[in-house]
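Hi Y.,

Following your request, here is the sequence exactly as I used it, all 200 residues.
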Amino acid sequence: MNGKPFAESAEQNKDPILDVLRRWFVEPGSVLEVGSGTGQHAVHFATALPHLTWQPTEVPGRIEGIEAWRRDAGLDNIAPARELHATGQWPGEHYDYVFTANTAHIMHWPEVLAVLAGVSGVLRPGGIFAMYGPFARGGRHTAPSNLEFDRALRRADPGMGVRDMDDIQRAAAPLGLDLLESIAMPADNFTLVWRRSGAP
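Below is the corresponding structure, written out as tokens. Let me know if you'd prefer a different format.
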């Protein structure tokens, strides 16, 4: 990959996620991606969805990898990657859409709550927030693979773990994020889709 960072999981899930984004990220607008990882998703989605302007973000130390993908892509609708930590300062701009993938389970719970609060603060009324990843539901894992993944995460760091979508929704609702759909995805994952309350 010419020295660019590469995640096999991002390669495998990019098209199923794109199918969801095509349904929900319909109108022209701006997207804030929280935790852009390698940058593969940003390039793939910005290529396939030219009506959107994509703003990738990551923690310090991962920006250059995203920039390598962005520069090679040569797309006009991907902005330079910006640093963003869940519990730090969020952008002053407002966005029509927010997207994040495979972040909730590697964050500690206070960081997940900070993401929800941050999204509520930057998402325009009527805007859409999509979160992809593995989730439990009703206190139970949805697949044996997710149970094993959760155990491995917690062995590595007790603060990490597969989150329960019901817990996330209970935290999101008071912030004006209304859950519209939970979409079953390949490999025992889900995409959760919210709309920011208020008239667009």
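The radius of gyration is 16 Å.

Thanks again,
Q.
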